[in-house]
């Protein structure tokens, strides 16, 4: 059975320990297995943050939020994260939250609104990601990206921080042929769309930068105003993978982002033993 | 995207370019309507700049807040999006009815991206339904949006160049004098200006 990270020696830049002293038993299967990673889990105990346009608290497909925040100007004029009760400015964040809830009904959902605010969305995104890392979220759904290169370095450093601090960022690939961030960074789980109907079907992509494909066509989602609709795009494939990551972490809470990616890989529909 | 003092003919060219893009987009997707919105950053609003199909006669120039609805999200996020069965969503239906007088069943929207910044949105309403084609539709819409962005960039550069000429009294006077000539005198004037340009370019 898995060993808790707390019981392991603190490894740093070097180690004098022998391999048997730092053994990590994550219960990996001997071969790729489709339903090993997430089956039987509900997402209970996992904290998921939706960084988007806000989320409509109490929508029947979303349930109760554990918190709602937005990025606003602070006393010095610089952006900061504060409690927010304005719901969703467009419906998109509510849609993403509803997909996560369907996959991981037991997870804790928190919203951080980065769109529709005072600052440009890229500054808001950086402020929000710093906040979710500092607050130790397990999974972040980011169905957004920025194509402003000037923010690339700051975003890369942030996503590395997240990766090393056990905050798994699941990020949408851009839907157009646009170079944008942070989905291109290897420290996040990047998601594109396939057109198959099965909501649980996901593939590993052997030709990155997009690492995984999930269903992104006609995804049934919640929308603001208590409504429901069908949406298409990578935005809606991404919360499917975020939800599955929440299931994996609720079943194996000690896993690092690297190990969750490996679990996704081993359970992807197209990863199979050689016959 | 218009500049004070630019002759109306250029604004008409700008309008024709955008209009042709929404007409082709509408035809390619067999859609009920297609629109281009330009972002007016000073007012925080999206403005109907070109419309083909439903609302064509009434929507040009109408405005709505940048953070509302599907077009607002697409503008702010810089990502394209498809939302189907809009009519089952009372909020969507009301927003569309209020802003366009028409409630579509499906909406497809893509940002017009200029150097990493959204400058507007291309929207296609009620495309011919084909769920299996949705991802291809999104990609094709993105291509149209890129074309619209390039058209806007070219028009804007032309407008700026023309504005520089108009705001320089000497150059404006020369342009007016030349445009008043006909036949051989016009050709002689054009050759003279070409020679002056060559001399100035050499001196530079």
Query: From the alpha-carbon coordinates, what is the Rg of chain A to the nearest angstrom?
Result: 18 Å
Helix content of chain B: 40-55%
Please tally the β strands of chain A and state the result: 11
Query: Which sequence of strands runs across the widest sheet of chain A?
Result: 3-2-4-1-5-6-7-9-8
Major β-sheet of chain A, in short? Answer: 9 strands, mixed
Beta strands of chain B, count: 6
CATH superfamily of chain A: Peptidase S8/S53 domain
Rounded to the nearest angstrom, the distance between the terminal CA atoms of chain B is 32 Å
The separation of the N and C termini of chain A measures 28 Å
**What is the domain tally of chain A?**
1
What does the overall shape of chain A look like?
globular
- Principal-axis shape of chain B: elongated
**Radius of gyration of chain B, in angstroms, nearest whole number:** 21 Å
* Known CATH architecture of chain A: 3-Layer(aba) Sandwich
Written as H for each helix and E for each strand, in order along the chain, the element string of chain A is EEEHEHEHEEEEEEHH
The unreliable regions of chain B are 1-10
Query: Which percent range describes the beta-strand content of chain B?
Result: 15-25%
Overall structural domain count of chain B: 1
List keywords for this structure.
heterodimer; A: 275 residues; Rossmann fold; two-stranded antiparallel sheet; B: 204 residues; alpha+beta; Beta-Lactamase
Q: How is this fold's topology laid out?
A:
The complex is a heterodimer of chains A (275) and B (204).
Chain A: E1 47-52, E2 67-73, E3 79-83, H1 92-103, E4 108-113, H2 121-134, E5 139-142, H3 152-164, E6 168-172, E7 189-194, E8 202-204, E9 212-215, E10 219-223, E11 227-232, H4 234-251, H5 257-267
Parallel strand pairs in A: 1-4, 1-5, 2-4, 5-6, 6-7, 7-9
Antiparallel strand pairs in A: 2-3, 8-9, 10-11
Helix pairs in contact in A: 1-4, 2-3
Chain B: H1 8-28, E1 33-40, E2 45-53, E3 63-65, H2 69-77, E4 81-84, H3 90-100, E5 107-114, E6 117-125, H4 134-166, H5 169-179, H6 183-203
Antiparallel strand pairs in B: 1-2, 1-6, 2-3, 4-5, 5-6
Domain GAF (chain B): 13-162
InterPro entries (chain B): GAF, GAF-like_dom_sf
Protein name (chain B): GAF domain-containing protein
């Amino acid at each position: 059975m898995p060993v808790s990270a707390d019981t392991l020696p603190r490894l740093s830049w070097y180690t004098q320990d022998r391999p048997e002293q730092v053994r990590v038993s994550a219960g990996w299967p001997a071969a790729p297995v489709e339903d090993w990673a997430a089956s039987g889990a509900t997402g209970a105990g996992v904290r998921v943050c939706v960084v988007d346009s806000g989320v409509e608290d109490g929508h029947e497909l979303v349930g109760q939020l554990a918190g709602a925040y937005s990025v606003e100007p602070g006393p010095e004029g610089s952006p900061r994260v504060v409690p927010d009760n304005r719901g969703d400015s467009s419906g998109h964040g509510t849609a993403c939250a509803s997909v996560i809830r369907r996959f991981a009904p037991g997870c804790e959902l928190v919203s951080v609104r980065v769109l529709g605010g005072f600052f440009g969305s890229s500054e808001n995104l950086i402020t929000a990601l710093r906040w979710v890392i500092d607050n130790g979220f397990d999974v972040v759904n980011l169905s957004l990206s920025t194509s402003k290169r000037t923010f690339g370095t700051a975003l890369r450093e942030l996503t590395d921080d997240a990766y090393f601090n056990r905050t798994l960022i699941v990020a949408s690939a851009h839907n157009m042929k646009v170079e944008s961030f942070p989905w291109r960074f290897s420290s996040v789980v990047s998601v594109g769309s396939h057109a198959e109907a099965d909501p649980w079907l996901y593939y590993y992509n052997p030709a990155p930068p997009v690492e995984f494909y999930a269903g992104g066509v006609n995804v049934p989602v919640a929308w603001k105003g208590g409504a429901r609709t069908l949406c298409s795009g990578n935005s809606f494939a991404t919360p499917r993978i975020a939800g599955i990551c929440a299931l994996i972490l609720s079943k194996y809470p000690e896993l690092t982002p690297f190990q969750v990616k490996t679990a996704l890989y081993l359970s992807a529909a197209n990863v199979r033993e050689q016959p | 995207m218009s500049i004070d003092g630019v002759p109306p003919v250029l604004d008409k060219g700008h309008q024709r370019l955008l209009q042709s893009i929404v007409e082709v987009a509408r035809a390619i997707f067999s859609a009920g309507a297609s629109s281009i919105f330009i972002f007016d950053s000073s007012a925080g609003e999206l403005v109907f700049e070109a419309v083909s199909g439903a609302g064509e006669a009434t929507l040009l120039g109408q405005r709505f807040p940048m953070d509302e609805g599907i077009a607002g999200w697409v503008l702010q996020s810089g990502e394209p999006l498809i939302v189907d069965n809009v009519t089952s969503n009372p909020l969507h239906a009301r927003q569309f009815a209020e802003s366009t007088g028409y409630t579509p069943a499906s909406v497809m929207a893509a940002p017009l991206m200029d150097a990493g910044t959204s400058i507007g949105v291309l929207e296609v309403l009620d495309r011919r339904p084909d769920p299996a084609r949705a991802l291809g539709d999104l990609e094709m819409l993105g291509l149209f949006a890129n074309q619209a962005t390039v058209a806007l960039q070219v028009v804007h550069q032309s407008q700026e160049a023309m504005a520089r000429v108009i705001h320089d009294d000497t150059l404006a006077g020369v342009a007016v004098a030349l445009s008043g000539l006909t036949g051989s005198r016009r050709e002689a004037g054009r050759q003279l200006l070409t020679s002056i340009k060559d001399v100035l370019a050499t001196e530079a």
